[in-house]
Structure formats: structure tokens, C-alpha cells
Amino acid sequence: MERTIVVDASIARSSGTTEHPVSKACRDFLQEMYSVGHKAAFDAVLMAEWRKHQSGYALRWFGLMQSRRRVVSVKCPTVDREYLAKLINEADNLTLNEQQAALKDVHLAHCAWVTDGLVSSLDDTVRNIFTAISRNCGKLGGIVWVNPSKAEEVAIDWLKAGARTEEDRKLKNRSLDGRWEQ
Known about the structure:
Radius of gyration: 15 Å
CATH topology: Rossmann fold
Low-confidence stretches: none
Number of helices: 10
Helix content: 40-55%
Shape: globular
Strand content: 5-15%
Number of domains: 1
Number of strands: 5
């Protein structure tokens, strides 16, 4: 079953050709996405970030994905953008720096909302911020967020199994310290 996954620029940047564990995990994740047949979602902001930060490997992967018509260009409705920005700006449980970080990466949630609700990113800081905000936004809490560099998240197995929307991977089911709640 093919799914559409938002792939953050942090993965593009880290997917170089070194044997560093994070680099290898990102390369393996992108390769498995391609092999299984999943699609990648990008809006204009994410596309610009990819172009700025992509490794040579990510550039080749993106070209392969495009040639197979597995790159999905998305645009989030203005009402969703305004709603999430308002939630972030009014969140009393976030510091100013956390609000700024969330606003900087809000496009990841936007892309997820208009596709299959799946995000892959190395940015656990923003994931934890979105987890905190998700207590007031069910739509945000429904996003599945996977970090390919975390062995315990078994991202490759998740891709092979169809990148399903598993309850225990949703933002709303993470504790505020970043662990998955049982």
C-alpha cells in the first residue's frame, strides 16, 4: 500500500554518503521509501529547504522519485495555516524560542494534514513542541511522526509494513518528555 510521507529537509541534509549512523539511517529510510513505492509530499517552503540543504544522495533520490511520479506537491488551506499559527502563538506552555521553532516548521504539519498525516524528520525538538500543542489540537495530534535515526522507532520496518497510521506513533500519544505513552 503506497502512502504519502512528508520528508523533512533534516533527512535530506543528513543522508550523505558517510557511514555515520544518522547518515546511514537517513539514506536507508529514503531508499526504502523508494523501494516500497511510497510518495513524498512537499509544499513550496519544504521544497526550498530541500534545495538549500540536500545532500548529493538526496538530490539523486529526489530525481528518481520525480521520474516515478512519486513527488506530491501540496498546498495547505489558509484557514489551517492561520489556525495552527494561532495555537502556537497562544500556547502558554511554550517559550518564545519554542514558538519560533514551531512556526518555522509548521509547514510539516500543513503538508501532513493535506496528505496521509505522516511526517519523517530528525527534529525531535519540534516533534516535542507539536506534541505539547496537540493537547489543544486534535488534528495535530493525529499526525504520525517518525524519526529514522532512532533505532527504537524501527522506521524501515514501518515503511515495509505500509507506513500505517499506528496509534502509538501519533503525536497525541507521546508524553511531553518525548517518550511514547503506553
